[in-house]
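Internal ticket - ligand job 249, S-adenosylmethionine:
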Amino acid sequence: MDKNEIKKNINEFYDNVAKEEIIVEGDIDQLNKSLGYSEDDLKHIPREAQLGLGCGNPKEKGKPQLGEVVGDLGSGRGMDAFLASKCVGDSGLVIGIDNNYKMLEKAREIAEKKGFHNTEFRLGEIEYIPIGDNTLDLLMSNCVINLSTHKQQVYNEIYRVLKPKGRISLSDIVLKESLPDEIRNDPKVHGTWVGGAISLEEIRNLLENAGFKDIEIELSEVTDEYARKWGYGLGIKQYIGNADIIGYK
Ligand SMILES: C[S@@+](CC[C@H](N)C(=O)[O-])C[C@H]1O[C@@H](n2cnc3c(N)ncnc32)[C@H](O)[C@@H]1O
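stdout (structure tokens):
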């Protein structure tokens, strides 16, 4: 499938998610806990920001600190941005970026309604991050970069917007082994993160090319619930995993 067509499919998919035409079935708390969110984390995240779209909890390894400036790429309705906002406090700033206006609108509405004064949401593409050079202490992203058809450009951009010694904490779906053609060519997986996933080695190379140092990648199994929801009955669980990635500029 042509790259522009993939991008269009992804945007249409998230339009429908933002409008809640596609939503995670079942117990969202249980799904979030299986992804690494604690009871305390979930208490702090407004319920309407929780769409069950992540594949990890990047706050865990990123450890946002009081006063820091933190970015969240592909922020959706702001789940991880709102969690980071608690950690950075009033002296810090959290910037969520998403290219889907419907997502952004909801995230801004929630921020205003719930009084997240240190959190803003910017419309933009992760391939052209709307943040100045050397701005962020920490960049997080949860289940987004695998969607990009220009991943090297995304990692280069992340490097650019981080301060010297700034860090990344990324959760992403990765390929453990190549997808068979019948899955790769199934249009359903193109709108979601499974279709764009690459291997750990490829991710490490892209990060190193961008200039990152001290990269650590932890691979874990995706949950049965995740595989059921996003695998569309195609038997994806053996092919994909979740990677928690850290690294430094
Ligand atoms: C899997 S969802 C994750 C949302 C959020 N991180 C969470 O865990 O709830 C992917 C998000 O990335 C956004 N997105 C996809 N491709 C993007 C791109 N190229 N630039 C910016 N945002 C993008 C989508 O609109 C969607 O909100």
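Auto-summary: The mean pLDDT is 90. The chain has eleven helices and seven strands.
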